[in-house]
Write a structure and sequence with these properties.
Layout: H1 2-45
């Protein structure tokens, strides 16, 4: 019985961790895209 609850809690923890990783990944992608944009804009406007 306890084992089932521990499995369930571990699953929830894993899902939360995966969600955080996805959020961080998305933020990094946005930052990287902004970096490209700023670099291109400086080169173009230069």
């Amino acid at each position: 019985m306890t084992n089932e609850r521990e499995k369930e809690e571990a699953k929830v923890t894993l899902e939360e961790l995966l969600h955080q990783i996805q959020v961080i990944h998305l933020e990094l992608k946005i930052v990287r895209n902004w970096g490209y944009f700023v670099f291109f804009w400086r080169w173009y406007a230069g």
